[in-house]
Amino acid sequence: MLLIVITITFFSIPKFFDFEKKQNLIKEYLFDKYSLETTNINSINYQIFPAPHLVLADVKFRIQNSSIESTTKNLKIYLNLKNIISLKDLTAKKVLLIDTKLKAEIENYKDLFKYMNELKERLKI
Predict the structure, then answer these.
(1) Residue 19 needs a FRET pair 20 to 30 A away by CA distance; which of 25, 69, 81, 85 works?
(2) Which residues face 68 on adjacent strands?
(3) E strands within the chain?
(4) 22 SS3 class
(5) Which residue in 52, 59, 57, 95 sits closest to 76, CA to CA?
(6) What is the mean pLDDT of residues 27-45?
(7) Could you tell me the maximum CA-CA distance found in the chain, to the nearest angstrom?
(8) Is 16 in a helix, a strand, or coil?
(9) CA-based Rg of the chain, rounded to a whole angstrom?
(10) How far is C-alpha 116 from the geometric centre of its chain's CA atoms?
């Protein structure tokens, strides 16, 4: 019983954090690992189920070194257990883009496919 209470407490603590203050860390992570230059994040929330993750709402970004721009309703960053309390060394299990709209010229779609092919981290659209 005590183990269940401790586990629930561990996963629930981040619900009280202000992730808006950690926005720069999240932007740096998305840039370093996914080459995404974020220009706008409306809000950041923490969700426990189905797995601990951050939900970034109404995100505008562009792919580094390209003219491909995008907006997404929800960008979910699924966290490793070591990142639930501290985002200092953020590493994600996966990043999921939900309801995403890409703006790209037809001649730039080759750049998009190249970007997706060279991406080493897990990104689901």
Answers:
(1) 69
(2) none
(3) 36-47, 53-63, 69-79, 92-103, 123-124
(4) helix
(5) 95
(6) 91
(7) 59
(8) helix
(9) 16
(10) 16
pTM confidence score: 0.83
- Angle (CA) 93 89 81, round 5°: 45
- On whether the CB atoms of residues 93 and 52 are closer than 8 A, the answer is no
Residue 87: what are its φ and ψ, rounded to 5°? -100, 15
Nearest to 109 by CA among 60, 62, 67: 67
Residues 112 and 92: their CA atoms lie apart, in Å, by: 22
From 11, 36, 38, 33, select the one nearest 23 (Cα to Cα).
38
Given a cut of 70, whether residue 125 has pLDDT beyond it is no
Enumerate residues 6+ apart whose C-beta is below 8 A from 15.
46, 48
Tokens read off for 115: 């970007």
Tokens 């995403």 sit at which residue? 100
Q: How far apart are CA 123 and CA 94, in angstroms?
A: 6
Residue that the structure tokens 């883009």 belong to: 97
Helices and strands (DSSP H and E) totals, the chain = 3, 5
Encoded amino acid at 110, one letter: K
- How confident is residue 43, by pLDDT bands cut at 50, 70 and 90? very high
